[in-house]
Amino acid sequence: MAEGSNADWMGSLAPALSTFPLAHLAIPGSHDSFSYWVDEKSPVGPDQATAIKRLAKISLVKKLMKKWSVTQNLTFKEQLEGGIRYFDLRVSSKPGEVGQEIYFIHGLFGIKVWDGLMEINTFLTQHPKEAIFLDFNHFYAMEDQHHIYLINRIREAFGSKLCTMEYVENVTLQYLWEKSQQVLIFYHYPLYQEYPFLWPGNKMPAPWANTTNVHKLLQFLETTLGERAQHGTFHVSQAILTPRVKTIARHLIRGLKNTLVHRNLPMILNWVKTQKPGVMGVNIITSDFVELVDFAATVIALNDLLLEGHRAVTKS
């Protein structure tokens, strides 16, 4: 992917598409978006099963866990420049650490949330027509005070760029541009009700196939798209294969990249190419290893299909 080639794709869409609800556009996303930097020296994260925590006391296991944890090779800025606009986020406090600092997490602890938010905000300031979805969907070792701390950091990072809760169908690129808003935050925890800039998690359903079988995955994506609500929500198609514990054991040395993903990405990408955005169509599509193929460009190109339909309607 040429660096920066998709950095301004939303602002570069055909003008007619800026009036379509964002829930009807095809938008590329990444899975476990913040695992590109994982701290091998950190304690194993609270999201791991007890058996793995015991194993992790052995340093070799930590190195192997790192292989399975790092699902994106690109930094935040690189993903944004590559066209990714939806980020799947898991966050945690560090148990035993003084203070309320929150970290991105996937297996091992990653970077401080604040540093990631700053990196995103810098990109958005430089690309004022781009809009992003931050989906805070897993929280570990967090009490209410940790959430309040995190929510305040989100407000501090983005300020007036935050899009307040609105009818999903009202949110178009045009709507956001007029208000100079660029960030939609989805927060899967009851405290969202107290902050107008937090959207409830149920507005961003992301059904998960939980399979290592690519045929089962594609069938699941078809079925869940068919069940998508016609109004009132966005929709995430998680085009990702999930390693089982025995898969991890068998392939620990090679790591995730060389087994599930490399082998099946062509089939997943071919499925993406046959999709159409719009009502009951695909909306956000997430994938592992966004840099292996031109995944983002493939998803973005689907929006041209909306134009064809739009032209047909305006001519008739």
UniProtKB/TrEMBL annotation:
Any single GO BP term:
signal transduction
Record's keyword terms, sorted: Hydrolase, Lipid degradation, Lipid metabolism, Transducer
Q: Which SUPFAM superfamilies match?
A: PLC-like phosphodiesterases
* SMART domains membership: PLCXc (SM00148)
GO terms for MF: phosphoric diester hydrolase activity
Per its UniProt record, what PROSITE patterns does this chain match? Answer: PIPLC_X_DOMAIN
Tell me which CDD domains the record gives.
PI-PLCXD1c (cd08616)
Record's protein name: Phosphatidylinositol specific phospholipase C X domain containing 2
Species annotation = Chrysemys picta bellii
